[in-house]
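Q: What does the assembly look like in three dimensions?
Context provided by user:
Components: four
Sequences:
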Amino acid sequence: PRARDVGVVIGTMSPGPHNAITDVDGVGIGHATLVEGTRLHTGVTAIVPHAGNMFRQRVPAAIVVGNGFGKLAGITQVQELGEIETPILLTGTLSTWKVADAAVDWLLRQPGMENVRSINPVVGETNDGYLSDIRARPLTPALVEQALTRLSYGDVQEGDVGAGAGTVAFGWKGGIGTSSRHLAESDGGYTVGVLVQSNFGGQLTIAGVPVWKSLPDPAEYARSLKVPPPSTGDGSIMMVVATDAPLDAANLQRLARRALVGLARTGSVMSNGSGDYVIAFSTAKENLRDPDVSVQPARSVAGEAMTPLFEATAEATEEAIVNSLFRAHTVHGNRGTAAALPLKPVLDALRRAGALSPAKPHGK
Amino acid sequence: PRARDVGVVIGTMSPGPHNAITDVDGVGIGHATLVEGTRLHTGVTAIVPHAGNMFRQRVPAAIVVGNGFGKLAGITQVQELGEIETPILLTGTLSTWKVADAAVDWLLRQPGMENVRSINPVVGETNDGYLSDIRARPLTPALVEQALTRLSYGDVQEGDVGAGAGTVAFGWKGGIGTSSRHLAESDGGYTVGVLVQSNFGGQLTIAGVPVWKSLPDPAEYARSLKVPPPSTGDGSIMMVVATDAPLDAANLQRLARRALVGLARTGSVMSNGSGDYVIAFSTAKENLRDPDVSVQPARSVAGEAMTPLFEATAEATEEAIVNSLFRAHTVHGNRGTAAALPLKPVLDALRRAGALSPAKPHGK
Amino acid sequence: PRARDVGVVIGTMSPGPHNAITDVDGVGIGHATLVEGTRLHTGVTAIVPHAGNMFRQRVPAAIVVGNGFGKLAGITQVQELGEIETPILLTGTLSTWKVADAAVDWLLRQPGMENVRSINPVVGETNDGYLSDIRARPLTPALVEQALTRLSYGDVQEGDVGAGAGTVAFGWKGGIGTSSRHLAESDGGYTVGVLVQSNFGGQLTIAGVPVWKSLPDPAEYARSLKVPPPSTGDGSIMMVVATDAPLDAANLQRLARRALVGLARTGSVMSNGSGDYVIAFSTAKENLRDPDVSVQPARSVAGEAMTPLFEATAEATEEAIVNSLFRAHTVHGNRGTAAALPLKPVLDALRRAGALSPAKPHGK
Amino acid sequence: PRARDVGVVIGTMSPGPHNAITDVDGVGIGHATLVEGTRLHTGVTAIVPHAGNMFRQRVPAAIVVGNGFGKLAGITQVQELGEIETPILLTGTLSTWKVADAAVDWLLRQPGMENVRSINPVVGETNDGYLSDIRARPLTPALVEQALTRLSYGDVQEGDVGAGAGTVAFGWKGGIGTSSRHLAESDGGYTVGVLVQSNFGGQLTIAGVPVWKSLPDPAEYARSLKVPPPSTGDGSIMMVVATDAPLDAANLQRLARRALVGLARTGSVMSNGSGDYVIAFSTAKENLRDPDVSVQPARSVAGEAMTPLFEATAEATEEAIVNSLFRAHTVHGNRGTAAALPLKPVLDALRRAGALSPAKPHGK
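A: Here is the predicted structure of the complete assembly.
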């Protein structure tokens, strides 16, 4: 279940209608999942900021590095120009460059792209080498195209799907998670949505409750299921933040840093071997960038009005991480098994701590 | 009381003997407090990395900016050279430059400094303009000298003292707080100590428990005491991290970022108007830097061995912040009153959440 | 003489009417110079972006660090918020904090500033400790006020004046220099103006000609004048770039980096001990920032239209540095003498290299 | 010819025996060139820091972004950990990801790499889309392997070879260039070597002489040859700096910035569309990093001893760029022709300016 559906409420702000990054109008999410027996559990997830030609109508954007032990493609051009000109892709570590190449191939074949001779794909990754035979690098251009084209604009699949097929978080099966927050009209009425690919470690903390103390050791739990224990590698997390608030690249950079606040609250200290990145963009129509204009009109939320956006980003990131765990299933993989997070002890711990709300299924 | 003395335990690692930044051998702390009726509540706090001549034996250092709405003096030279050549000072916002000037004056008068014509004082600040008449800028060179010379190497005064005399955190009286962690011998046996000057806002969360929900609104509480309510300004925090682990400037920069993890867990999102800074240094003797050598040693903890240091930094920062609140007294100030954090509802909330340990006074 | 008046032409673009930073409409320059016998040669220079209340109408701004061995005050807030809220001040190293404090004092006393309790002065410095008794820190609040209030909006005094009174560049007397460039209407018709405080070393190169080879060794030259030779310290340079082009902070950051291009061409490699900083701001009226609005305009020149602004910045910086040398007089100072750059061998070398234009006094 | 062989001497320091990056002991250079009629002119160049297993003996490293309009792969991990764990590859823009993927494939197949599941290839690029059909992305894994394995340790092929096969600089045929500097023993006796892939624009300046004024317009020159004129795109440059000086990552970052000084002196302002990057590494044996140790021994050149290394980097970069032009041949390519730089007017201009030394072929 999604966290909120079983009474786990993160923070105090209200989610949007889907409690997903797709609550930011125009944002589409595509997943392509590759599972083959126990050997392969990997995939691609695409975050498409708007339905138009991204290369002709670029979104203001920023990328923040929490801990840079990762292979993220495309960062320097985003930092220099403050914009993203392609969909964003997530995948497994050793597929980063193959996925980037396939995305470029597909993008260059789109209408209107006939004369493009430079393009900057943004591809993030986390390491799915425990559940998947990562050295095989099995992803195909067809799967990349599938992620880029079969988009959801409402509910988003979470857990062991797409780029989350083979990831492990806190010793349990992690993956894709999403959440959103809608600001009060007096705070601008903006929406912030977050999507994560969770694959990191730490002491799992949910809504402030150190549930890790109430959980079996993932390795022992795996053994009790007669399966090899999960890796203790310290993993990584990709976080993507979308908003319809008009923000320039400088303020998006500030916004992105607040995803790290949400990450910290789940029990991560961004360990040495973790690649923890935040990619943030604004879909506000008035700020879309035509590469050929010589003066860019733009507006940006300023000063104190940024703080509610910061809070929304922290809350939505924290909840997206929890959703990535709550929605994942046990996966028997290439080098062992990652069990689904056992919800009963988690919910019991939350209840004991007074941190469980009466379950209120999130209607639409 | 200190948090740990009443059963509030942050994290899982063990503190050092004083549970203070002074557990890092050689680090001394000096406070000078200026209180005058209700009008002035300000001061200076000095963090002195070692007892020698700092200018001749510099400590590897790094400074990280969480949110840069502050006036920190000295940052670019620290970032360029990776070292600090003076004691670190904390004070109130509008006294930053006066304190820096007084420190330079004092430093240039010390033995061996007769020919020094360039020096880089590091001075941080938070805004004590609610409890103190900040525009008066009343600090004197004598007070700066007092902070630099009357040093404690064991227990450290906390709360409304020194640079914490006039600060407000989460609507309650904040100030100076400190804590430390000692790593297992298998993790290197290093010590990490943190000292903070708390003056920021958010939703006060202690050991994961949203105690803010159990507390009166600080403004209403103030009114119930027949005093003007505290400012709702979003304030700032200075965090100073010391360690005896041999770390080069690059790894100190990584360490410093983990103080922001601890900050996030107390309920801060680093709001727009906050100046949130971390200054980290290593006292490892083999890495002290003589400005005149042409090749210097740069041993550093590496790779996975960094992660326990990251955890120690996050935990000690979180506990230092809690201590800054637990140890502060109610202050009737220039523009109103900041009440001491009411401990009973806080401890009750922690107890209800199962987050209170049996009180075990921290012996020495 | 100014370089251009004796035929030294840097680059290919046209200067504005004053060939000075004041060609950017609204920018005013104030100097306060303190000379006392040979002992003191120091001062303050103010760059005032516009005549209004800077705190209420902030300019988008950026600061870039070429080599950070300096004490620049105010950088982190400028980087976080992308704006400057006070005039910019330049001075001698050990006066940085005293000047900042005096500026804050004066600013807080201005009309409309009665309730301001936080302000971020931007103060840069270079080390005038060879010609001036720098440890005396003799600057007074009255001199700071003078620099802030006696402003020139046309011709700017250069050489050994204001913050340039005691600086040394390439072994010769340096100081304040300025220059500007006006873009073709087809490139936007914008103006870029630069002011520098030169105090650095290297192999003096003018318009590409290694004139250092044709010059006497400054130390020997000093001895031939029966005076102590100049310091060989490697100094620093402050560069301030103003433009009326509408630029957001991100593009100002890019613009500022191009001042380092001009610096490189004069023979500097930004030596280890140099504090080389660029402060850039835009005066475009539509982008002035009211701290109280919640959404602010952020128009900015974009894409390829930036390149001519980059060229203008590089050229104007290079020429401003040359002007700082050409306009300085020999100064007999505290620890020795810095001779004015001997123009005859310089101009001869330029002439031999074919790099001297027919002198065309720059009329207005 | 190489620049120095015809009397073009940049700066005042002495080159190493090969005046190439290979003068840094252990550094090998491999080129794979793909030419097919006029349609394809592209390739790969490998810079291999040492002959051992790079993944097990990592080199301290830093990457600096001059202007980030490029697709450089691998930067964030280098910046986080301060080390490079693979050879460095250069290629054409749209081949970046294919080359990275092929390199990963090859590296994972090497002895001792059987269990590696995470690796960070560093791949830089410039855009060869004028002379080569860049959208075809024709490079094969075999060519990448060739570049990685057929290494030169002495003389280095320059000009239109490897990753320089299809690049254009200042409107003329650019490509690969290299140079080195050897420091005096009193300055440490270290060597600095630079290799560039030139593909950028500006006003070509050699040894300070604005030779662009004496050259035909490249477009008109092409037309006079009855060939289509070169692109006016503003291109990019990759600069790789190697040294045997013991430098930690922080000082390598400072060193890398000085390559931009050399770049500036050739007439570049780092235009808006340029991807200008510097990758620097140290081969000092005592600093090689074993990923499994928990404390890294290291030493680093410090303080004033850095300045000669800065000068060496600036000089070698400037000369490497000139060599890339002097050694390139006219190439008739996919969309037009890039002519070899006409040397006669260049040398005439240098001679007139007194900037030509008596030719002294650089013996070995």
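Follow-up: Chain A has a mean pLDDT of 95.
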